[in-house]
Design brief:
Blueprint (H helix, E strand, L loop, with lengths): L2 H23 L4 H4 L8 H29 L1 H21 L3 H13 L3 H10 L3 H54 L22 H5 L2 H31 L7 H25 L3 H21 L4 H29 L5 H29 L2 H20 L8 E7 L9 H4 L4 E7 L4 E6 L6 H8 L3 E6 L1
Antiparallel strand pairs: 1-3, 1-4, 2-3
Helix pairs in contact: 1-6, 1-7, 3-4, 3-5, 3-6, 3-13, 4-5, 4-6, 4-7, 7-10, 9-12, 9-13, 9-14, 10-11, 10-12, 11-12, 11-14, 13-14
């Protein structure tokens, strides 16, 4: 890995982490401290908690497409400035409506997919998978840090301090962007699988298997956001657990849940038991909500419910993107992930609103009942999914003077499942099973067409 590539990966991981840490820190504290704002109600607190998902869900794909026209860095800078402005507005808000507006503006800086596209632009094929894994790992780490810093900061200076620290992270992120190299136009070919292609959206939405996964991530983040309306309030108001100590309970239950889910990740990938593990994790998510509801008056029972929740959540967060990647038609991975991510953010919005509404018209345990019902519905939807195959995508850049490539001449080769030719881009996408692929025959068949192998 050359120094420029190493610096690019480090910078983008830092940028992604700064943004996500700022978004995550508010989750365990907003329902507690948001009651101090003028005009605050449980419903409006739920809107404030989830509204960032509404703006992010609607703007992520358009901003990604805009980055193809004006460049990645300008779009990321615009998004980070919006995130900074939203953080400052939320920090200085005096009413719940100002807080909602600030959170909506935070979400309008919807540059996650553009950051991933820039990462693809600035890395070689050999290092791209490692770079993507580094970004994925940073999400889990920043969530853990947010569970520590959010409650600690709020106990010292309320939500105002949380949002000012978030604004500081936004400034750090902007500085990082200005120091990143700008990719050339030619290098953007590599990120075609990282961004949404408008012409593929309709076919992606018509894919029943992908729609099941989109529904799943919608439910998962709806459950997560609704739960954060109830968990801090029950710890504070029902169980009398000191606010300043919330962080260590979250850290222990989340750390324990992460360790407990690792054997199941290994079972899913190495033993190819992905569907069984996936269904089991959905079932566990529902059980966790029932335990939280039943144990809302007993600290030990409630803590055990949190452990089960984090175990299920971590397992599903790791499994769902893998399933999308395996199921997405060849050449459609970026589009599939774009629709998937939008579903995730819209689920956060719905969960926040649903949790706030239930807290206002019913009770805090009713939120867990809603979450358990959502998990049960998801289980029924997932039950009919096909057993996923373990496919790998290979992207080939074609020679300008190559003869026309006939996809049917490759689908007869052992291990080749699908071929999509994008002649206007000079690309061919192959979906293969590496365990069954005859690599030599595949390479021989490509010799006359291939310029370079750019992704896999």
């Amino acid at each position: 890995m050359n120094p420029v590539e190493r610096r690019s990966i480090t910078g983008l991981v830092c940028l992604y982490a700064c943004r996500m840490l700022g978004l995550f820190m508010v989750l365990p504290v907003l329902s507690l401290y948001g009651r101090d704002y003028a005009g605050s109600t449980a419903l409006l607190l739920g809107v404030a908690l989830g509204v960032y998902g509404l703006t992010q869900g609607f703007l992520q794909i358009p901003l990604g497409l805009l980055s193809d026209k004006i460049g990645r860095k300008p779009v990321i800078l615009i998004g980070m400035i919006a995130f900074l402005a939203g953080s400052i507005l939320a920090a200085e808000a005096q009413s719940i409506y100002g807080l909602i507006l600030g959170r909506a503006l935070q979400g309008a800086g919807a540059v996650a997919s553009t950051i991933m596209a820039l990462l693809a632009d600035l890395t070689t094929e050999q290092n791209r998978t490692k770079a993507m894994a580094a970004v994925g790992g940073s999400i889990g780490l920043t969530f853990a840090l947010a569970m520590i810093f959010g409650p600690a900061l709020a106990s010292s200076g309320g939500l105002r301090l949380v949002f000012w620290v978030t604004a500081g992270l936004a400034v750090l992120g902007i500085l990082v962007v200005t120091r990143l190299p700008s990719p050339g136009i030619a290098s953007r070919v590599a990120s075609r699988e990282a961004l949404t292609v408008p012409g593929l959206i309709r076919s992606t939405l018509a894919n029943g298997e992908l729609l099941r996964l989109d529904a799943g991530i919608f439910v998962l983040h709806s459950v997560q956001m609704a739960s954060w309306m109830a968990v801090p309030m029950i710890l504070d108001q029902v169980l009398g657990f000191p606010r300043s100590s919330h962080w260590w309970l979250y850290l222990l239950s989340m750390g324990g849940g992460f360790v407990a889910m690792l054997p199941f990740i290994i079972l899913a990938e190495r033993k190819r038991q992905l569907k069984a593990v996936f269904l089991g994790a959905i079932g566990l998510l529902g059980v966790a909500q029932i335990v939280l509801m039943a144990g809302s008056n007993v600290f030990s029972g409630f803590a055990f419910g949190l452990f089960l929740f984090f175990m299920a959540f971590n397992l599903l967060e790791a499994t769902l993107p893998s399933l999308v990647s395996k199921i997405a038609p060849v050449g459609c991975r970026g589009t599939a992930m774009g629709v998937y991510s939008s579903s995730q953010f819209l689920g956060s919005f719905v969960g926040g609103v649903a949790g706030g509404w239930l807290a206002q018209v019913s009770s805090l345990p009713a939120i867990f009942e809603y979450c358990a019902l959502m998990a049960g519905l998801w289980f029924l939807i997932a039950l009919t999914m096909a057993r996923p195959r373990h496919w790998t995508s290979i992207v080939v850049e074609l020679k300008a003077d190559a003869p026309p490539l006939n996809p049917s001449s490759f689908t007869g080769l052992a291990g080749v499942e699908d071929v999509v030719l994008m002649a206007e881009q000079g690309l061919a996408y192959f979906k293969v099973d590496k365990k069954q692929l005859d690599a030599q025959a595949f390479d021989d068949a490509l010799k006359v067409f291939r310029r370079t192998n750019i992704a896999g």
